[in-house]
Amino acid sequence: MAKTGWETLRQWGADAERVERLTGGSSNDVWSVRIGGRLAVARLGKRSDADLAWETELLHHLDRNGLHVPVPIPAADGRPFVDGLVVMQYMEGSPPETEGDWERVAATVRHLHELTRAWPQRPGWRSSLDLLVQTSGTRIDLTAMPAEAVTRCRAAWARMRGRPMSVVHGNPNNPGNVRMTADRVALIDWDEAHVDVSELDLVLPHNGAGLVGVERDKAEQAAAAWEATVCWKDDYAERRLAEVRPVAQ
């Protein structure tokens, strides 16, 4: 009989155990765990097998190409995930704080983009450009938003037409999603990763990516519109929507 919930952790060994609940957003239950005596991170959610296969394959690809990411730890039978549970390496380090730290984050994010220019879209997801004509994808439902808000968001995304596409991390501007040491920058929490306009990832604290002028304005408006739609309708989404300029009549 298939195991469900956290009983599934036993697929990683009879001594596998949860240690401490971690912050994992609204979509997942995330814990530090101990697997074979070593610390790891486990995430339990309701994503499909196709979705999780996309994410775990991406993390292996990035690891092979020199990016520091939480590589999935296979279950005892070799599966990269089981019944919605993924176990990943624990990444040591501290969050970025200074302008120089965020410049290092930007360099890492740009490396991610270069490694994934031809990567396929995450199953069930839509890019911001897809949403110029589509109304839904994974957590996004534009029909739940006021029509005027959708018009504003789409206008912001339309300005990004023709820009390079790649896998985007989805939330590298959150210090909690970055672990830094003196010699490396690691990106964690890939639950929101998908294929989109690369510059959505480059709106960082301290303008770490060095965006200027019109290009900076386009990226900031498009990123605010994306976060408003993906988080709709909480207070954060309302604040992000307020940053998206009304469309001139």
UniProtKB/TrEMBL annotation:
It comes from the Bacteria. InterPro entries: Kinase-like_dom_sf (IPR011009). One of its GO terms (molecular function) is transferase activity. This is Aminoglycoside phosphotransferase. It comes from Devosia soli. Keywords: Transferase.
